[in-house]
């Protein structure tokens, strides 16, 4: 809204209608984000129920008791089945487990231990292992992808893309083993374990303060590299393709026609557009890379959720399988929702709602 004065210059005045419209659009964006989050959480519950059902149909927690010599009395088997809830239908078992899980009580394992005492420690271990590698992968993957787009068809760029293809072709469990073998001569030459191969900390070491942090950091280096390298290769190739598309776009040529240098046009207009598809890719691929973290935990002896999941499958424990599935699914949902928030900031079109 403007008023034209005697000097014929337009003087802007507050436009309450525009402000109200902007506030309404922001409110609608928040409602859409909340609706997406609730839908994803419903998918988490559906996936957990499906996993719990399949595990309950496949597992027999009493198999070990049935094969003992002398045979276990039937009364003992019935009592154990009742303690584990095996005497009820699967949907009722799941609802009972879910009602407890919502208040932090995940039930007991087939060996009689409390799941709640173990699950948060395991989750913290997995988070310490996977979060640094994932953050490092996103940052370096984006950086290498942008660098590759600017140096397209040069020898250095072709070599980097070939290296990315090699990394993508190597399974995670093979990559972790190769890193151990490559670093072993370094440890042998130094006469000490500069970078340990197993565990979260040095067994028996009574360390505190900075010494304890340094010990944990040394144990974290090789697993972090194992987590990060495949993701860097994956993200860099996708970011390179997105950046090349932006560099050849009409809007970037128009920005340069207005007098901006290439670097200025890319920073002001192109970079944000190139990051938009990357944001969605990180959200959708996070679950895939999280599955690779299961093997990383096993290779490097980290007792996190992935290691616990494999152990629970071996012990035929449906409750632990459901608990780890639920936590991993919620983690994927949280990452996806954060990606949605970033997308709202990067892309104004997402915030544009027609009246």
From TrEMBL:
<feature type="transmembrane region" description="Helical">
    <location>
        <begin position="129"/>
        <end position="150"/>
    </location>
</feature>
<protein>
    <submittedName>
        <fullName>Peptide/nickel transport system permease protein</fullName>
    </submittedName>
</protein>
<dbReference type="InterPro" id="IPR035906">
    <property type="entry name" value="MetI-like_sf"/>
</dbReference>
<keyword id="KW-0813">Transport</keyword>
<dbReference type="InterPro" id="IPR000515">
    <property type="entry name" value="MetI-like"/>
</dbReference>
<feature type="transmembrane region" description="Helical">
    <location>
        <begin position="162"/>
        <end position="183"/>
    </location>
</feature>
<feature type="domain" description="ABC transmembrane type-1">
    <location>
        <begin position="123"/>
        <end position="339"/>
    </location>
</feature>
<keyword id="KW-0812">Transmembrane</keyword>
<feature type="transmembrane region" description="Helical">
    <location>
        <begin position="220"/>
        <end position="238"/>
    </location>
</feature>
<keyword id="KW-0472">Membrane</keyword>
<feature type="transmembrane region" description="Helical">
    <location>
        <begin position="271"/>
        <end position="295"/>
    </location>
</feature>
<keyword id="KW-1133">Transmembrane helix</keyword>
<dbReference type="Pfam" id="PF00528">
    <property type="entry name" value="BPD_transp_1"/>
</dbReference>
<comment type="similarity">
    <text>Belongs to the binding-protein-dependent transport system permease family.</text>
</comment>
<dbReference type="GO" id="GO:0005886">
    <property type="term" value="C:plasma membrane"/>
</dbReference>
<feature type="transmembrane region" description="Helical">
    <location>
        <begin position="33"/>
        <end position="55"/>
    </location>
</feature>
<feature type="transmembrane region" description="Helical">
    <location>
        <begin position="318"/>
        <end position="346"/>
    </location>
</feature>
<dbReference type="GO" id="GO:0055085">
    <property type="term" value="P:transmembrane transport"/>
</dbReference>
<keyword id="KW-1003">Cell membrane</keyword>
